[in-house]
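input
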Amino acid sequence: MPNERYDVVIIGSGAGGGTMAHALADTPARVLVLERGDFVPQEAENWSPEAVWKHLRYQTGERWLDDQGQEFRPYTHYNIGGNTKFWGAVLYRLRREDFEALEHMDGVSPAWPIDYDALEPYYERAERLYDVHGEAGTDPTEPRRSAFPHPPVPHAELMAAIVAQLRSFGLHPSPLPLGLRDGCILCDTCNSFPCKLHAKSDADVCCVRPALERPNVELWANTLAKRLITNADGTRVEAVDVERNGTTIRVESSLVVVSCGAVNSAALLLRSASDRHPNGLGNSSGLVGRRYMAHLATMMQGFHPFRKNPTVFQKTVAINDFYLRGPHTRYPLGQIQSQGRTHGVMAQTVVPQVPLSMYEWWVARGVDWLAMSEDLPDARNRILVDASGRIQMIYRPNNLRAHRTLVKETRRILRRLGFWVVMTHSHGSKNTTHQCGTVVFGTDPRESVLDTYCRSHDVENLFVVDASFFPSSAAVNPALTIVAQALRVADHIRTVDLKLGLPKT
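output
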């Protein structure tokens, strides 16, 4: 079969790749999106806790290695829209301070090479594109911004009562910024479930499907990018070797965008080592795969045996009072978010020996929260590939003192709210959600892999657009920043690489 040729090849269809495809769809460029998975079918199992959490119907069966060389099954999904199909659609802007160097209990969160002002107009576009609901002016840490595109999702009766109590404690609860589309019924299977109604704002429904309506955009599903091939002097990517329908095909392109997620993007670059790039493609700095970060995240549930929780859609409120400093410390602690309802089957996956009926009784009387703190970049936390190309994740969470303090403060708040028992659970060193930082951007090629527009310092037509580029993890969900930067990078590609000028927005 002869080689295929495109102007732009985008590898991955999640928050980075899907948004890039949408942003370049109205250009004359011939764009190909490669995705190793397929569309998630709209089916009854979308909303089945047993199918999603017990049988892991949509989660990859791939096995990675931990730092001890032991296999584990990562929480990640290969499908059109990537992990956005299963996210909770919380779409925060980074705080202005997140772009600056910030001292934490256990180290320093480094400054970004761009500031909040550089991303502000793209945050606004991203919120419109992903139908974000929220309320400006209620979050004490919120940076300057215009109004949200849509009003906040109303609190259910119990959550409204909790919000009133939190305010009586002197706290400043604010609505979670949520990406929800027309047709949303505010069900109890949003967080970590695919939406059967396509009413959750994910990269598939917001970006990929609209982009495919354009004649110049093509999607190859069930297609795995194996390796990037450069020219003889290693300065440009000439092609991508892909595995499709049981055969290997070489796809040539003038420009390549890698958007596989922080783990898989790093792995693809490492697998693309060559004589000119012996340590991995674009890795003259030695940083490809290093500085892996994932938020310190502890799920917490307040339980009261005599109070049944009638709430269906619970994930509407956040507490950011401790984001920049704690109540008894000058150091940042992180944020607290209400979460989607826990189902009995979900809880049973942690301790399977307990009967399901007991879990159902328990979770019906619980209110679910997440305490989330910043993970600091550490070169020892890294993604590797072995001789066979298999991924190894070497990761030890840090900034633990701050997170323990946040969990303690959250527990104290839940007790003041009247909950008798507070349960906690964390993924610890096998956390693959909110992954970032493995292909960091910056201005110095010795200290970064990408420039400020996510172009490789070493390979002139290679971009990496996902949370890989993050120099720090901050302590809010990374998705909106990925989308905003994708829009910014797409504008740069249009005006510099494609020389097409900017679209009307």
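quick obs: The chain has ten helices and 21 strands.
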